Amino acid sequence: MCGIVGYVGEQQAAPILLEGLSKLEYRGYDSAGIAVYSDGALNVAKTRGRLQALADMTGGGAKIQGTMGIGHTRWATHGEPSDINSHPHVSSSGRFAVVHNGIIENYIPLKKKLMEKGFEFVSETDTEVVAHLFEYYYDGDMVDALIKVIQRVDGSYALGILSADDPDRFVAVRKSSPMIIGLGEHENFIASDVTAILKHTRNIYYLEDDEIVVLSKDDVKIYNIDKEEVQKKVFTVNWDISAAEKGGYEHFMMKEIEEQPKALRDTINPRIQDGKIVLDSVSLTEEDIRSLNRIHIVACGSAYHVGVVGKYIIEKLTRIPVEVEVASEFRYHDPIIDEHDLTIIISQSGETADTFAALKEAKSKNSRILSIVNVVGSTIANASDDILYTWAGPEIAVATTKAYSTQLSMIYMIALYMADKISMVSKAEYAQIVHEILAIPEKVEEILKHKEQIQFLASQFYNSKSIFFIGRNLDYAVSLEGSLKLKEISYIHSEAYAAGELKHGTISLIEEGTLVIALATGSELFDKTISNVKEVKARGAVVLGVTTEDREHVEDVCDYVIRIPKTHEILLPSLSVVPLQLFGYYVASLKGCDIDKPRNLAKSVTVE
Ligand code: F6R
């Protein structure tokens, strides 16, 4: 989604903006632009295409002089990707420039009114109304104008606004779209996320909705909508800069796949003390858990797939009913939910618009909210009753890997923690699962040691037109993720099916040579899945089985077999997903796809 960077300080702004925007490229974009204040005017450069085109146009920023500016990478929503539709957008007089992430939902009536008042629109975007509206309301004070603007616009926004009348300061505001404030020495920043400014500062302010920020070189002031000053706590970000760099890898995705053991250790180890799961940030008591009617897990994409695993595990261990739903559906069907329900929200970015809207829906019905989030201080984290952070570090590749794995590990720990609180798990089983959770990172390392085997398999199938993933129960939940990983980065059509469901229609798509990846890791349903493998083989499928190291005779029914280490049954998804991530990666790599930035996709989906 769109990325924003803003700078005011003593250095030349344009190169800093370009560099910051380059760190936001991973979010997905189709055009880029900057506006810099110079000598009572605004110098704007913007273009469709890659950031390199903007860098070429501005001589790496050297052609645009000035020490204060705003920059933007656009992911088109309203109007095609074009030079004109790129941000910054300027007001009719050219005195104000605006960058925006989000959607102004009522831009059509506002545009009509502004046109009646003589404002001329040049783009097809919703953002341009903000530039004209700001000019319309501006009476010498940027904060007053911005308050009036946000009182008129509906929707979501992170806005940075620069004025040719103000040589020292610019303003920003956010609502339901990410934006943080970076605090430096004689320089200050705005950014869509910390990776854009990590090189300059680790001291951050997180903003609440509709808090207005005035940034100058030596000062940052924050106001509420009544123009009262708000005091903020400074957060220090401990992410390692190198975590957001490729560090010799061809793609962030492979780097992040390989970082999984570390991310898992960082997430798991602090939460297990003397064989006990300690979730300090969770305030659920035994009584709270006993009184729960139901748990809802709500998320999007891969985070939703973690929820599907979560349903099986939480129900198995606690016997509390769990419903799992994609956020974009949940909020629109008037979900049956009340104060006796717990809602678990899962989100890497903590900014996904649909997931946040679902959180608000659950909250409005008095459900308690427990979130699993990777980005500290993100919108979802701020709005939750209890937060469990995954310590995966920055995830740059659009296709999630280490965030998914750490979310899974959190789900295991929550499930076991709750089961223990309400005495649903024996001491022996508790100890065994804890022991196995601690061993996951090492077992993932073991799988990664044999990645060449997966590379070879990918080389056999990268020309496939369509690939199916099948499995039962937890194996089905992992199939969903394996299929998504493959299709989103390699553009090969793929579907995941509950193995027993295939014969109710979809099996008609299986023909001579169709690849079916069959997950058969769970022991309880192993024989049933093998029967389903035989059904597809009888119709010409080539089958790649994924099973545990101790299973015998799988080679007799499958054409190829990938083996993973043994672990406790409920933890198998943490291991079986790794070869599927690698398979998707290698297939996409052999096809020459843009792995870290697949077409049409954005990292943090901040529009509905
Ligand atoms: C797929 C992927 C997406 C995200 C989804 C939710 O590889 O990364 O499906 O899982 O967009 O994003 P978050 O977790 O940031 O809410």
Automatic annotation (TrEMBL):
UniProt main location, coarse: cytoplasm
Annotated protein name in UniProt: Glutamine--fructose-6-phosphate aminotransferase [isomerizing]
Pfam family, one: GATase_6
HAMAP family to which the protein is assigned, alphabetical: GlmS
Subunit structure: Homodimer.
Keyword Cell wall biogenesis/degradation annotated: no
Location of the SIS domain: 285-424, 457-598
GN (gene name): glmS
Its job: Catalyzes the first step in hexosamine metabolism, converting fructose-6P into glucosamine-6P using glutamine as a nitrogen source.
Protein origin, superkingdom: Bacteria
PANTHER family: GLUCOSAMINE--FRUCTOSE-6-PHOSPHATE AMINOTRANSFERASE, ISOMERIZING, GLUTAMINE--FRUCTOSE-6-PHOSPHATE TRANSAMINASE (ISOMERIZING)
Enzyme Commission (EC) number: 2.6.1.16
Active site annotation, chain numbering: C2, K603
Any one GO molecular-function label of the UniProt entry: carbohydrate derivative binding
InterPro entries named in the record: GATase_2_dom (IPR017932), GFAT (IPR005855), GFAT_N (IPR047084), GlmS/AgaS_SIS (IPR035466), GlmS/FrlB_SIS (IPR035490), Ntn_hydrolases_N (IPR029055), SIS_dom (IPR001347), SIS_dom_sf (IPR046348)
GO biological process entries: carbohydrate metabolic process; fructose 6-phosphate metabolic process; protein N-linked glycosylation; UDP-N-acetylglucosamine metabolic process
UniProt keyword annotations, A-Z: Aminotransferase, Cytoplasm, Glutamine amidotransferase, Repeat, Transferase
Catalysis performed (reactions): D-fructose 6-phosphate + L-glutamine = D-glucosamine 6-phosphate + L-glutamate
The Glutamine amidotransferase type-2 domain, residue ranges: 2-218
